[in-house]
Write a structure and sequence with these properties.
9 strands, 8 helices, 220 residues, C8orf32 fold, seven-stranded antiparallel sheet, alpha+beta, two-stranded parallel ribbon
């Protein structure tokens, strides 16, 4: 037993306070300063979009993972418009942060996928179960990005998409040809039936690295 019970008590109180602080910031998707900046620049309606997103994450923490997938997929497919990067950002390829996407209330396939990915990780879905997945959309003969989910590397991934809004197993999406996938833990060559072979770090993807840097600034 400690000879300094007062010190022990102080330590326990610090642990409790720290735990409460971490819990309070668990769903910190953007700083209050950032929300205020957005309200001043774009108005109350845009700031309320961010608040609704934060509320969505807070209210759905206790749902099952399948419910979180369905709710997140529907939430963004219903409220975001698809607009190309050229029209929206005057750039050929720009990966918007979730905050930037909500400010515009629009984005292309990468933006839909990115905001779903970070929403699901904020909802407690393990990063290792999620992949931002590049595919070829055969019907349109062009590159496309979707979010895939699987509980383990032997399970056929589920596809969250803004083209076909119904979540389906990847082997039922005959309109998509997988190319590669990545998340915060790595990068993989992809197949329809499994997660594929890991080929390196996602830090090799310049747009992904740039996106994460901009997201960090939104938390300041």
């Amino acid at each position: 037993m400690s000879r300094h019970p007062g010190i022990v008590l102080v330590f326990i109180l610090l642990v409790i306070v720290l735990g409460l602080a971490l819990a309070e910031n668990e769903y910190l998707l953007f700083s209050e300063k950032k929300r205020q900046q957005i309200e001043q620049q774009y108005g109350t309606e845009v700031a309320e979009r961010l608040s609704r997103w934060k509320t969505f994450v807070e209210e759905n923490q206790r749902k099952t993972e399948q419910e979180k997938l369905n709710l997140t997929n529907d939430f963004f497919n219903q409220q975001l418009l698809w607009i190309s990067d050229i029209k929206l950002w005057k750039q050929k390829d720009y990966w918007a942060t979730p905050v930037e996407t909500l400010v515009k209330a629009a984005g292309d396939c990468e933006d839909f996928t990115i905001i779903k990915y970070f929403t699901l990780t904020s909802l407690g879905v393990p990063v290792k179960r999620l992949r931002l997945t590049y595919v070829k959309a055969l019907k349109y003969n062009q590159a496309h990005m979707v979010l895939t989910y699987s509980r383990n590397r032997h399970e056929v991934p589920l596809v969250l998409d803004n083209i076909n809004k119904k979540i389906l197993p990847a082997n039922q999406r005959t309109d998509l040809k997988p190319v590669y996938s990545f998340n915060g833990e790595g990068m993989w060559l992809q197949s329809k039936k499994k997660l594929g072979k890991k080929v390196g770090s996602s830090s090799r993807i310049r747009l992904w690295t740039d996106l994460k840097k901009r997201m960090q600034k939104e938390l300041l």
